[in-house]
Write a structure and sequence with these properties.
Layout: E1 2-6, E2 9-12, E3 17-24, E4 33-38, E5 45-50, E6 57-59, E7 67-72, E8 77-82, E9 91-98, E10 111-114, E11 118-123
Parallel strand pairs: 2-11
Antiparallel strand pairs: 1-3, 3-8, 4-5, 4-9, 5-6, 7-8, 9-10, 9-11
C-alpha cells in the first residue's frame, strides 16, 4: 500500500493549487481518503475527507467553500483543489487512507497509511 502526494508549491494569497494523491496497492473506492495538514509547532489538522461508501465529502470549517476534494477511480487518485489560498493555509499537506471503521474523520488515528506530504506555501 502506498500513497503519493504531489502538487504543492509556493503561491501568493488568493491563488490556487491542486494537490494529487495517487494510491497503489488498493482500490480507492474501497476506502475513505482524507487530507490533513501540519504547520510547524501545530498539531496535524484534518482538512477534508472523501467517504468510501456514499462518496460524500466533508471539510473543516477553515477551508469550507474554498477547497474541494474529488476522486478519480480510473486513475486511483484523489485531488484537493485549493482556491482563494490564505497565508494561514501554509503547511505540509498529507493524504491518508481511512481505516475500515472510521468514527471521526478528522482524527489522524483513524487512518492507517499516509503519503509523504507536499509543502504548500502561501505568501501575503
Amino acid at each position: 500500500v502506498q500513497l503519493q502526494a504531489s502538487g504543492g508549491g509556493s503561491v501568493q494569497a488568493g491563488g490556487s493549487l491542486r494537490l494529487s494523491c495517487v494510491a497503489s496497492g488498493f482500490r480507492l473506492d474501497d476506502y475513505g481518503i482524507g487530507w490533513f495538514r501540519q504547520s510547524p509547532g501545530k498539531e496535524r489538522e484534518g482538512v477534508s475527507y472523501f467517504r468510501r461508501s456514499s462518496g460524500t465529502t466533508v471539510y473543516s470549517e477553515s477551508v469550507k467553500g474554498r477547497f474541494t476534494i474529488s476522486r478519480d477511480n480510473a486513475k486511483n487518485t484523489v485531488y484537493l483543489q485549493m482556491n482563494s489560498l490564505k497565508p494561514e493555509d501554509t503547511a505540509v499537506y498529507y493524504c491518508a487512507r481511512g481505516r475500515p471503521v472510521l468514527s471521526a474523520w478528522s482524527r489522524s488515528s483513524m487512518y492507517d497509511y499516509w503519503g509523504q506530504g507536499t509543502q504548500v506555501t502561501v505568501s501575503s
